Amino acid sequence: xxxxxxxxxxxxxxxxxxxxxxxxxxxxxxxxxxxxxxxxxxxxxxxxxxxxxxxxxxxxxxxxxxxxxxxxxxxxxxxxxxxxxxxxxxxxxxxxxxxxxxxxxxxxxxxxxxxxxxxxxxxxxxxxxxxxxxxxxxxxxxxxxxxxxxxxxxxxxxxxxxxxxxxxxxxxxxxxxxxxxxxxxxxxxxxxxxxxxxxxxxxxxxxxxxxxxxxxxxxxxxxxxxxxxxxxxxxxxxxxxxxxxxxxx
Length: 249
Known about the structure:
Blueprint: H1 3-28, E1 37-41, H2 47-55, E2 60-63, H3 66-80, E3 89-92, H4 101-104, E4 110-114, H5 117-129, E5 135-140, H6 157-164, E6 170-176, H7 182-185, H8 187-204, E7 215-217, H9 224-229, E8 234-237, H10 239-242
Parallel strand pairs: 1-2, 1-8, 2-3, 3-4, 4-5, 5-6, 6-7
Helix pairs in contact: 1-2
């Protein structure tokens, strides 16, 4: 067996396992598995593994860095150009600096990490000056109140939504969070964080700027089943899907 075919078979098995676990978690919670979408968190993953995952049905890729996303999009489109596999959609799942917004907009279909009015205003302005589309975004919420993490505080979320409400080129369609690690905070704490994000979405749907809130992006390799049981509509899975990431050199 060649190295490439071995890689493809390993990724195929991983994709099937993750999708099966998502479906089982959804059914156990009384949910339709089709209401949960897998996002392949592909930061620092080899392009052959990413391509194999897309060919196995992963339809959304999540990237943390603008330059890495640009390079991977070009490579992946070249690899898949002659096949019948649809190209994936791309989500920005890492912290986005204002000076990177102009470069990010052509690359991403959805930005999951809007956490401050200044960033929202920059996205709205750059989108208006670019292709004029209304870009869907998620508001990132720091529900675990960790000072080292990005995200708007839950009590400041209504203000962020209200600021975004009149923007013609940005629409907040859901919420995203990265909870404290389960091995440090405990699994019950992680569950409470996910439940809190769901409560925020439900409570703010009638607030200014909250009318389009539907998505909940929460859960990664270590806790996505808990997230699904608490209402996640998007789960960002990396290691469980692709294997251990390459270390930066």
